[in-house]
Amino acid sequence: MQTSFTDNYDKDFLLDTMMGPNAMRITEELASFLPITEGMRILDLGCGMGISSILLAEKYHATVFAADLWISPSDNYRRFEALGLAQRIIPISVDATNGLPFAAEYFDILISVDAYHYFGANETMLPRLLPFVKTGGHIAVAVCGLKRDFPRGEVPQELQPFWQPDMNFYSLSWWQELWAKESNLRLQHCREMDCLQQAWADWLKSPNPYAQRDIPMMKAEAGKYFALVQLAGQKI
Ligand SMILES: C[S@@+](CC[C@H](N)C(=O)[O-])C[C@H]1O[C@@H](n2cnc3c(N)ncnc32)[C@H](O)[C@@H]1O
């Protein structure tokens, strides 16, 4: 059996830097659908503490702009520098809802892992992000989602105690329909991800208090509702 980059990574480091289902594992699966080559310029939007960026820089030798709202770029810079990655990962503070400080067509690839549902579950975000991707380049997103949308949007009773207003969990077909409205994008590789269970199991082992809070939620969920939704496409 093939072992993954993520499985061989420093487990304590990952447990300390995860902010949800293991973003390094999710990024590794997402990246396997993308034509990443050495030196490509990638925007990692909503990178959190940067474990997705670290995978892209270490496994693929890409140049990554690690952009996030909640996590300070100084903290991320220290982390990247300690790993010897300061030349390949550029930390930056952005709020995607306020526009991005980059040149048009600057990135070969834009990725976002477990973050896009906080700011992108609407018709306006994709058309605002796409101009920063080169024509022929790619955008790829992985979000926490649902196997099926809740009927009438009503959260099942067993999940209600855990539900937060900003969760924005939707099904693959909900997201696909949203992205299909964008005429400058050829949709490719939209699917539910295989690493769902393992990525969540990794997270629940983290000492992060939010992980501890998620343990009863995942017990209540019991494999019935959640999915990891992957969306990927090429800018045309
Ligand atoms: C659940 S955390 C996941 C972080 C990281 N991607 C990971 O999986 O470890 C969600 C991330 O989305 C980012 N985020 C939320 N709203 C954002 C916005 N408007 N612009 C940029 N990032 C945003 C937050 O800063 C946060 O780090």
Describe the structure.
Helix content is 32%, strand content 23%. The protein has one domain: 3-Layer(aba) Sandwich (Rossmann fold). The protein contains nine helices and seven strands, in the order ααβαβαββααβαβααβ. It has 236 residues and is α/β, with parallel strands linked by helices. The chain is globular and about 45 Å long. The chain has a seven-stranded mixed sheet, sandwiched between helices.
Write a brief caption for the model.
By secondary structure, the protein is α/β, with parallel strands linked by helices. It is 32% helix and 23% strand. Strand 1, helix 3 (51-60) and strand 2 form a beta-alpha-beta unit.
CATH topology: Rossmann fold
Report the average pLDDT across residues. Answer: 97
State the helical fraction: 25-40%
Beta-strand portion reads 15-25%
What is the CA-atom radius of gyration, in angstroms?
17 Å
- State the CATH class: Alpha Beta
Main sheet, how many strands, which sense, barrel? 7 strands, mixed
Gap from first CA to last CA: 37 Å
What is the overall shape?
A: globular
Query: How many DSSP H or I helices?
Result: 9
> In the CATH hierarchy, what is the architecture at level 2?
3-Layer(aba) Sandwich
What is the count of β-strands? 7
